[in-house]
Amino acid sequence: MGRAIALKLAAEGASLLLTDISAGRLDASASQIEAAAPEARGIADRVLAVRANAMERAEVAAVVEAGLARFGRIDVLVNVVGGIRGASLYTPFLQLDEVQWDATFALNLKPGFHLIQFVAPGMLQRGSGKIVNVASVVYAGEGGQADYAAAKASVASLTRSLAQEFAPHVRVNCIAPGLIRTSVVERLAESERQGFLDKSLLRRLGEPDEIADAVAFLCSDESSFMTGEILAVSGGNHPGL
């Protein structure tokens, strides 16, 4: 999803500061962006990729410092980092151990916490900015995913808290994806995959490009009267249903 979002925003003319814990994945994304827009003059100069573990505050600080040194300002922040830290996508609550619980919350909350604290002050000082967080359609609760659902509920709650704190000049919104065709799908048993499809009114998986389109909308002036929203992009699989 992160790569699709980066490609979409680059196509819209944005300069990009990218970070990922995987240097190989990060380099591949930067190369794909450059290859996708060979006609875009100076596209390579508009993409800065800095490898980092976004759960580590010092590493996040270095990423933001490099971005500011290159571009001078950061107008949009998209927080995509997240996931499930267990060996399985489903772990009954009574089988959850503290290590998995803490790891899931750290993965889904710490990157956004660090990045927002480093980036938002500049936005507030300039009186403009847009922040988009990525939660999940399961934030309202999902059996077997108590840790992940609770962590994503925290992302949704944080979004609305910050929308109030940063108003009226910085807009903070959230996307709640359904099951998207990413590497996560490869870990699903066929019965689990079918269960997600059965919940979708459209009876299919979402595509990364469809999440990217929603992010681009929330980053644009077309959503200028939206803040504190949690937008489900889930094929009709709404939270709590």
Characterization of this structure:
By secondary structure, the protein is of the alpha/beta class. The protein has one domain: NAD(P)-binding Rossmann-like Domain (Rossmann fold, 3-Layer(aba) Sandwich), CATH 3.40.50.720. Helices cover 46% and strands 12% of the residues. The chain contains seven helices and six strands. Helix 1 packs across helix 7 (208-219) and helix 4 (98-126) packs parallel to helix 5.
Give the topology, please.
Layout: H1 2-11, E1 16-18, H2 23-36, E2 47-49, H3 57-71, E3 76-79, H4 98-126, E4 129-134, H5 146-166, E5 170-177, H6 190-199, H7 208-219, E6 230-233
Parallel strand pairs: 1-2, 3-4, 4-5, 5-6
Helix pairs in contact: 1-2, 1-7, 3-4, 4-5
Give the structure's gist in a few sentences.
The chain is α/β, with parallel strands linked by helices and 241 residues long. The chain has helices at residues 2-11, 23-36, 57-71, 98-126, 146-166, 190-199, 208-219; strands spanning 16-18, 47-49, 76-79, 129-134, 170-177, 230-233. The chain has one domain: Rossmann fold, CATH 3.40.50.
What is the correct CATH architecture?
Answer: 3-Layer(aba) Sandwich
Order of helices and strands: HEHEHEHEHEHHE
Under CATH, the homologous superfamily reads: NAD(P)-binding Rossmann-like Domain
Q: Got a strand count?
A: 6
State the CATH topology.
Rossmann fold
Distance N terminus to C terminus? 24 Å
Judged by helices, strands and strand pairing, the structural class is alpha/beta
Please state how the strands of the largest beta sheet are arranged side by side. 3-4-5-6
Number of domains: 1
Strand content: 5-15%
